[in-house]
Amino acid sequence: MLNYDETSGILKALGHPVRLRIAEGLLLKNECNVQMMVKALGLPQSTVSQHLAILKSHGILRIRKDGTKSCYRICDKRVKGLIGSLRKGEV
Fold first, then answer.
1. Is 46 helix (H, G, I), strand (E, B) or coil?
2. What is the value of pTM for the model shown?
3. How far is the C-alpha of 33 from the C-alpha of 64, rounded, in Å?
4. DSSP state of 22
5. 17-68: pLDDT as tens digits
6. What does DSSP assign to residue 38?
7. Contact between 19 and 51 (Cβ < 8 Å)
8. Adjacent-strand bridge partners of 70
């Protein structure tokens, strides 16, 4: 059965263009640290970190520590499937 509150939270988290770009363009298939995202997105580090915190709070991201760096990756299979459907134009 679909958990409406949880699913709604995930959709809201992905509903911002920057967060969707982070999820689809940078983290769906690859692991990435904040510095790499800042460079790719052309946004300040604080802005990228705020968006990552929102994605993390909804259980969308997995974080792996690599020394002083934090490496992020999408861990929610539903999000991967949703983004795959969006790419195909099925949604």
1. helix
2. 0.90
3. 9
4. I
5. 999 999 999 999 899 999 999 999 999 999 999 999 999 999 999 999 989 9
6. H
7. yes
8. 65
Amino acid letter for position 45: Q
How many Å separate Cα 54 from the centre of its chain? Answer: 9
With a CB cutoff of 8 Å and minimum separation 6, the contacts of 45 are 34, 35, 38
Please choose, from the candidates 20, 26, 45, the residue with its C-alpha nearest in 3D space to the C-alpha of residue 35. 45
The structure tokens listed for 66 are: 């690599």
Query: In 10 A of CB 47, how many CB atoms?
Result: 13
H/E element, 63? strand 61-66
Q: How far is residue 17 from each of residues 28, 64, 65, 69, 70, measured CA to CA in Å?
A: 15, 24, 26, 25, 22
Tell me which residue has tokens 């195909």.
88
Specify the residue for token string 């949604």. Answer: 91
